[in-house]
Design a protein that fits this description.
The chain has 189 residues and is an all-alpha fold. It is built from 8 helices and no strands. It has one domain. The protein is 53% helix and 0% strand.
Amino acid sequence: MGPAPVSTASTPSDHLQNKAKLVAMLGVHSAIHLLLDNACGEVWLGQQKAGWFDAGAAHWYEMQLFNQTLNYCIDEVKLRANFKNGQWFVHVKNHLATHSEPILPAMLRKMTGHLDVEDHPFSWSLFDWLVRAHPDKTTDLLLSLKAKRSSRAAFQEVFKWNVARVEQEWRAWVAAEYPSKNPKPRKKL
């Protein structure tokens, strides 16, 4: 990742053997990291304390295509736990409904490699909210982050909202939009 991209992967020895779907999932996840690093200027968001956007986007595209996200890039490799089997809709919805403590203030300041296991589903979900509820603002937020603004400053610039308001809107959207049962993962390509 970064301005001179090199694609690497760390997988269990049996993870990719004769499994075209798993190879495709890894390719999608890695490609999104590389595209984000080089879109609109060479800036690795994951090193700019916008790890939520970097990891969230990679997980989001994997989830969009396969209803599951199983991959973590080299900077995320310590998390190879396949948290909740890569199916996060219900986990995120239930957690947000039963835990009122703020998530975003701490998560929005982390680099990709510093995201905790629990931060990955929330990063994916925040990115999901961004692209599904506010598609007209996604590019502007990306450009603001690429200009090396903090996530807090970028949301203020693009949405005119503070982080507390972003969290309030995101939580309400998840409660209304996420299913009570995870979609089944795709079995084949």
